[in-house]
Amino acid sequence: MLMSNLLATTLQWLKKECVPCPLCELSPQQKQQILCKDCWQELPWFKDYVTRHELNILAACEYRYPIDQIVQQFKYHDRLHYQSLLSSLLLTLPLPRVQAIVPMPISEKRLIERGYNQSLLLAQSIAKHLNVPVWQPVERLAQHSQKGLSRLERISQIDEQFIVRQPVKERYRRVMIVDDVVTTGSSIHALTHVLQNLGCVHIYPVCIAAVFD
Ligand SMILES: [Zn+2]
């Protein structure tokens, strides 16, 4: 057991020290997570709030190269080694003090297709770092096609996707929503509504990246 721990730690160290930066492919002198220091500094940092549906959402980056590709790889191609990089982007933000972390839920259909909820993985890292629990009181139903719907119809359809998972054992007043990418903010808006109905008073949404038109 001890020996395998030692082996795992050594492998982790080797990976961290010797694997070239995935963005520029140079062997880095200094590293920030898996990136070299230069690539890390040149990320499309944003570290500010975007306002969507009158909600202030804290975003680490703008959704453009290379963050868009990293998120896509993480989300659709099982590149789970990007998890610690993406979590560390969130940890550069001035995160509020909360009692629990709520990952943006995905529908069971998506979960089966993808095998994991990328926001849950990020939420777990953040929760561990902040020493608070992950809380998942809301489930998400599969989305129907939104083709041909008006903006308002789309919003109400998204609202209907989020339902409380019964029974709700724990309740929290101050929570953080963790999402990967924010575009219109409709999902965060809908989730916020359900959380408010569950008694949450302070809800702080944070995301890896925000899409700007
Ligand atoms: Zn690099």
Describe the fold and architecture.
With 213 residues, this protein is an alpha/beta fold. The protein folds into 2 domains: 1-42, no CATH class; 44-210, Rossmann fold. The chain has 8 helices and 9 strands. The chain has a 5-stranded mixed β-sheet with strand order 3-4-9-8-5, sandwiched between helices. The chain has a two-stranded antiparallel ribbon with strand order 1-2. Strand 8 (174-182), helix 8 (186-197) and strand 9 form a beta-alpha-beta unit. Helix 4 packs across helix 6 (118-130). The longest helix has 17 residues, at 2-18. The protein is globular and about 50 Å long. Bound molecules: zinc ion. Residues 21, 23-24, 26, 35-36, 38-39 line the site of zinc ion.
Short key terms for the protein model shown above:
213 residues, alpha/beta, Rossmann fold, two-stranded antiparallel sheet, 8 helices, 23% strand, globular, ComF/GntX_DNA_util-trans, PRTase_dom
Outline the fold blueprint.
Layout: H1 2-18, E1 31-32, E2 35-36, H2 37-41, E3 45-52, E4 55-62, H3 67-76, H4 83-91, E5 100-103, H5 108-114, H6 118-130, E6 138-140, H7 151-161, E7 162-164, E8 174-182, H8 186-197, E9 202-210
Parallel strand pairs: 4-9, 5-8, 8-9
Antiparallel strand pairs: 1-2, 3-4, 6-7
Bound molecules: zinc ion.
Zinc ion binds next to strand 2 and helix 2.
The helix content is 25-40%
Proper CATH architecture of the largest domain: 3-Layer(aba) Sandwich
| Ligand types | zinc ion
At CATH level 3, the topology of the largest domain is Rossmann fold
Major β-sheet annotation: 5 strands, mixed
pLDDT averaged residue by residue: 90
- Please give the domain count: 2
Rounded to an integer in angstroms, the radius of gyration calculated over CA atoms is 18 Å
| Helix-strand category | alpha/beta
> Which sequence of strands runs across the widest sheet?
3-4-9-8-5
Task: Specify the number of helices.
Answer: 8
- The ordered H/E elements are HEEHEEHHEHHEHEEHE
**CATH class descriptor name of the largest domain:** Alpha Beta
